[in-house]
Amino acid sequence: RAKARGRDRSELFDEEMRAEAMRLLDLEADLRRAIQRDAFEPHFQPIVRLCDGAVVGHEALLRWHHELHGPLPPSEFIGVGEDSGLIEQVDWLMYRHVVEWMTLHHDGYVSINVSPRHFHADDFAERLLLMLDEAGADPRRLRIEITEVALLDDAPRALRILSTLRSQGVLALLDDFGTGFSALSYLHRFPIEALKIDQSFVAGLEGDMHAESLALVRAILALAGTLGIETIGEGVESEQQRQLLGELGCNYGQGFLFGRPQPAVGAPPPQPHSPARKRRKARKPA
Ligand code: C2E
Ligand code: MG
Ligand code: MG
Ligand code: MG
C-alpha cells in the first residue's frame, strides 16, 4: 500500500512539474511577443530626502502590460526573463522609455535596475551612454541600481564598468543592501553613491523583529557613514519608520508612505489594443 501511495504521489508530482513547465514555456513565448511590440512601461516611485521631504529622484520600475493578465510586476516574469536571456532585451526597451522620460521631466534623477548578468554583458556601459547621448539626456541625471552579486561576480570588471559610467556622471546605487554578502572588504573599493537598505529591515523596525532590525539598520548606517556613502531606506510604509530612519541618520527614503510606483504623467498606454486595458477603461465613467 505504501508503495502504491508513493507512486501516486510521484505521479502527481510529475503532473505538477509538467504543468509548471508548460506555464513557464507559455510565459516565455508571451514575453517574446511582448518584446516585439514593446509592451513594457516604467512606473516611477519618488525617492525623498528625509530631513525635509523633498523629492530628489525616482526609481523606474518595470511593468509588462500582458494581453490577458494586464500589468504584471517583475516578480511574475523576471525569473523567466533571466533564464531565457530575454531580460536584456526587455531592459533595453525599458531603459529607452526611461531616457525618453528624462528628456521630458527635468527634476531630479532617475534610477534604473540592472540585473547582474546584464551589468556584465558586453558593452553595457557604452550602450547606455550612447542611448543617453542620442536622446540628448543628461547622464548626470541617471543612476543604476545593482546588487552586491553584480560587484562580486567579477570585481575588476565591475570596477571598470562603474568607472566608465561614473566618468560620464552615471552614479551607482547598491540595491537591497543587507540581503547579500554585505562584505565590508569590498565595499570601499567600488564607487558607490548610495546604499539602498533592503525593505525587509525597514519593515522589521516595527513588530517582532524590532531589536534585531534596529541593530542591523544602525550597523548599515554606521558603515555607510564611515565610507562616506549615502543611504536610502526602501519600503517605508509608516510614519514611525520614516521618523526612526531619519533619527538614525538615514539620508533618503522610498516607499508607499511617500508614493506608490505610478505611470508617467501623460504617458501613452503601451498597448492601446489590449483587451484587458479596454475592458478596464470601459468600466470607468468618462
Ligand atoms: P527593487 O529594485 O528592490 O524595487 C523595489 C520594490 O519594492 C518594487 O517592487 C516596489 O514596487 C516595491 N515597493 C516600493 N515601496 C514599497 C513599500 O513601501 N512596501 C512594499 N511592500 N513594497 C514597496 P517591483 O516594482 O515589483 O519590483 C521588484 C523588483 O524587480 C525590483 O526590486 C528590481 O529588483 C526588479 N526590477 C524592477 N524593474 C526592473 C527593470 O527594469 N529591470 C530589471 N532587470 N529588474 C527590475
Ligand atoms: Mg531597485
Ligand atoms: Mg531594492
Ligand atoms: Mg528588491
TrEMBL record:
State the residue spans of region: Disordered: 260-286
Q: Which GO terms describe its molecular function?
A: catalytic activity
Keyword Metal-binding among record annotations: no
Q: Please note every region of biased composition (Basic residues).
A: 275-286
Q: Domain of life of the organism in this record?
A: Bacteria
Keywords, A to Z, come to: Coiled coil
* Residue span(s) of domain EAL: 24-275
Please identify the protein, giving its name as recorded: EAL domain-containing protein
Record organism: Luteimonas aestuarii
